[in-house]
Amino acid sequence: MTTHPPLPTVRPLLDPAPEYAKWQAEQPIRRVAIWGDRTPWLITRHADACAVLADQRFSADANHPGFPHTRPGAPPQAPGLFHQMDPPDHTRLRRMLIPDFTFRRIEQLEGTIQRICDDLLDAMTDGGATQADLVASYALPLPTLAVCELLGVPYEDHGFFRDKSNALTSVAGDPAQAMAARMALYGYLRALIERRAHEPADDLVSRLATERVATGEATLDEATGMVSLLLIAGHETTANMFPLAVVALLENPAQLDALRADESRWPDAVEELLRHLTVIHSGIRRIATEDVELSGVRIRAGEGVIVALQAANRDPAAYPHPDALDVGRDASGHVAFGHGLHQCLGQSLARTELRLGLSTLFRRLPTLRLTAEPDSLALSTSTVHGVRSLPVAWE
Known about the structure:
Layout: H1 19-26, E1 29-31, E2 41-43, H2 46-54, E3 58-59, H3 89-97, H4 103-108, H5 110-124, E4 131-133, H6 134-139, H7 141-151, H8 158-169, H9 175-198, H10 204-213, H11 220-250, H12 253-261, H13 266-277, E5 284-288, E6 292-294, E7 297-299, E8 304-307, H14 309-312, H15 347-364, E9 369-370, E10 391-393
Parallel strand pairs: 2-8
Antiparallel strand pairs: 1-2, 3-5, 4-10, 5-8, 6-7, 9-10
Helix pairs in contact: 5-7, 5-15, 7-11, 8-9, 9-10, 9-11, 11-15, 13-15
């Protein structure tokens, strides 16, 4: 019986797991063991990753038997979670949300996001304070406040939905706890949508309630699932990406100096940081619905596939010297937000939060430094790579 290597679940702070570079060079499409007797195919090259994510023969439907879930006992697919659906359901639900995530709409939020950055830094430095946990004080509340503003979810309840988000995204959690967390979060959001149907405001939840649920275009359960997905994804990814970006820049002072000398370079720097760090580290999961030939490998119908985004973004065939952080690099085409039909709906919001959040932080606190060794930082246990806290100080 052939023994397959386990899928890497632990990685160094600023790098993909070491196994990926070796596999990418020697066997870029190979089987890995996840749990039970599941041995899906792992995709590590950039071109192959894009091919899989653009090919509708690889289904995102998590209800398929044999789907390579991140853990055993994963909750059944819920209505509205369109990231785990195929067309036409995926298309129908995603289309309802597009008006709230256009570049123009996010551009209109820039003033709000800048105010959030400034208010958080004012509070962090209040009374002459010179040290803080950057995760708790800035990296987590920034995207949480922004997504609450966009969705219309009361920020004062952020502790509740943060706890539920942690339970749902943990790779080591109890399936029963994950299901209980989902039910609690869905109950909260369902009540909010029903309330906004009678008391609408200028926010996404209200528009879903009055323009989609009330007209029968979406069910209440679908709207609840959509809002839960946006709420969790809207703060979880950026909150984890942000402190890693801070560490990466402080550990590469020449790159940070280049940004301080010319702030117009921040948009390109954000793209490079997204490529370099790639916080979605458990891979994008798919299942083949028919036999597919991919770079000389036959993937058969019913076999699971995991696209290792962090490996694809460090592919030397796509990015010369891929392990180097280079804010002057053309990092376009990276797959940090996925690729194809399921590419992240909120990517414009995430880019804006990172650009404004990082540039404001380093402009207002030019002497910012870490007060702990990077290797000593406790990593998160979720499907999103990050740190639990980031102690920093400034003069």
